[in-house]
Amino acid sequence: MRLTIFITSIVLSTISYGQTSIKEINLKAGEYKVGFKHYTINDSTRTYRIHNEFNNQIIGRPIPISIWYPMKIENSNSEQLTVLNYLEILKEEEEWKNLPNYFLLDWFPYLWNTPQNKAHLSEKVNAFSNPKFLEGNFPIVVYAPSYQASSIENFALFEYLASNGFVVISSPSRGTDTRWLEGGTAKDMETQSRDIEFLLKEIHKYQNIKHDKIALMGFSFGGLSNAITVMKNRNISAVVSLDGAERYNYPVLEKSPYFNLDRFNIPYIHFAQKEIPEEVLNSDKIPVELNYKFQLYDSLKYSNIYRYRFHDLTHSYFSSFGVLFANRDKRQDKSDDKIMTSYNLLCYHTLQFLNATLKNEKNASDFIENSPVENGFSDTLMSKKTKKTIKKDFTYRDFNDLAYKQDYQDLVPLYKRTIAKYPNLELQEGMLNMLGLWLSFNPEKKEQGVNVFSLALHLYPKSANLYDSLAEAYFYNKDYQYAILNYKKSLELNPGNQNAIDRLKQLKE
Fold first, then answer.
1. Closest by alpha carbon to 314, among 269, 281, 349?
2. Which DSSP category does 246 fall into?
3. How far apart are the C-alpha atoms of 161 and 10, rounded to whole Å?
4. Cβ neighbours around 472 below 10 Å, total
């Protein structure tokens, strides 16, 4: 059996039934009321087959999307949701949307039909259905679920974050061609990574989101997929791993053609489960190295990394579903009270990390840098290790990433800030010249091209070639007045510039 399947499944031997509730988890909501909406759109670039329709019909890949957000309070038809409302979304994502609700706890093997679980169905949650977004701009958290799991598996955490001024968006973990994954393979990882990237595009439909303040968060297999997504995308600001499988299945991460540790250079926090008891290691044939091996943590050089171990949480309890519905393994699980307390602390530490990295809140930054004891938590609850980034040479490519993020606006102030921090940064004239031309020849990016030339001429004010290229950019975009002006400046610096002579003659005619 593959390791990923093991760590995302619930141990079926030696079980007992849990007694928990949303109220007893005791997540104190922030200042915002929480809105929730769910919808499905299709990715027409990929194909898919609905497994439970028992036919071979191929359709565009459906992407169910769940989103939590600070809501606008008004007199509307918005209703406060219950746990059952979330499980109805689970039915859809599991491709059993017409399943009668009374079958829910019997149908899906990870829910279990017990009196305790039945009691959860009527529990009120904090979210309301489909209200309007609150006016303002909020940081965004893109969530990747665990192996073959639902977009709403961590709904209590999502509501908590939304009540504190974040937007959370999620889609289910599903296979490349059907609902079923292959078993935690590189193909599964790449498929989920593409789904995450789909959400990264989807968020641009919302005006209330800060598109330069994006964090990825994932549980179990979702953590693995997030790691490779970071290596492919430069617009991510931080990563949260909820006992992510990048620790358990690191060799799968290495199989990706996008694997590049140097591109993983943003703040990263990993929350790990308790040490697995020797009895469980032996009986379930689990490699003992899982208790101490953190290969991604050990391998990263250019990130500030925070690693916590929660001493009262086994793997299943890093999600709302696990805390509320999972059966307890008497061999290793702690009491329900301890599980709920630790899940509360997990959510709180996640919030503080996101406040620090996406909102730049000083108190949150201090909290993340402190030890658990300094923050008032017993070391019997959790332990912590940190690694600080190793400063590397800041290159033209790194600067271009910063410039790209701000759409090549205000480049001279950006350069001044960057050179103060990285005095060895060198922006070569030729590279700026090529970038300026490349942007200028795109009708939608001509302003950005001029901005690059402005920076280049700030650095190389006596470059006849830069003035000539800037004039070519204006000429191409039919701004002949500025083209003439810059051809003349080029000739002042280099009277032998034949291109400028010919262009001026052409423009005069």
1. 281
2. T
3. 26
4. 21
SS (H, E, C) 197-237: HHHHHHHHHCCCEEEEEEEEEEECHHHHHHHHHHHHCCCCC
Query: Whose CA is closest to 128, among 79, 174, 76, 182?
Result: 79
The residues, any chain, with a CB within 8 Å of residue 275's CB and separated by 6 or more, are: 291, 309, 311
The tokens describing 40, both together, are 């499905």
**68, containing H or E segment:** strand 59-70
**Rounded to an integer, what distance in angstroms lies between the CA atom of residue 145 and that of residue 158?**
12
Q: Whole-angstrom Cα distance, residue 214 to residue 488?
A: 45
3-state SS, residue 447: helix
Q: Give the pLDDT score at 73.
A: 84
| φ and ψ of 185, to 5 deg | -85, 170
Virtual CA dihedral for 494, 496, 498, 499, nearest 10 degrees?
0
1 confidence band (pLDDT: 50, 70, 90): very low
CA dist 303 and 261 (Å) reads 10
Of how many residues is the chain composed? Answer: 509
Cα dihedral sign for 311, 315, 321, 324? negative
Rounded (10°) angle between helices 411-421 and 396-405:
140
The span from the CA of 470 to the CA of 452, in Å, is 10
- According to the model, what pLDDT value does residue 166 have? 98
Over the stretch 458-491, which tens digit does the pLDDT of each residue have?
Answer: 999 999 999 999 999 999 989 999 999 999 999 9
Phi, psi of 238 (to 5 degrees): -165, 160
Token representation of residue 410: 């205000």
Per-residue model confidence (pLDDT) at position 56: 84
pLDDT tens, 162-215? 999 999 999 999 999 999 999 999 999 999 999 999 999 999 999 999 999 999
Residue 385 has pLDDT above 50, yes or no: yes
Q: What is the chain's alpha carbon radius of gyration, rounded to the nearest angstrom?
A: 27
Judge whether residue 381 has pLDDT over 60: yes
DSSP notation for 350-415: HHHHHHHHHS--HHHHHHHHS-TTTTT--TTTEEEEEEPPPP----HHHHHHHHHHTTT-SHHHHH
User: Measured between alpha carbons, how far is 294 from 223 in angstroms, rounded to an integer?
Assistant: 13
DSSP code, position 468: H
pLDDT tens digits, residue range 202-257?
999 999 999 999 999 999 999 999 999 999 998 999 999 999 999 999 999 999 99
Whether 172 and 151 have beta carbons less than 8 Å apart is answered as yes
Do the Cβ atoms of 473 and 452 come closer than 8 Å?
no
CA angle 283, 284, 286 (to 5 degrees): 115
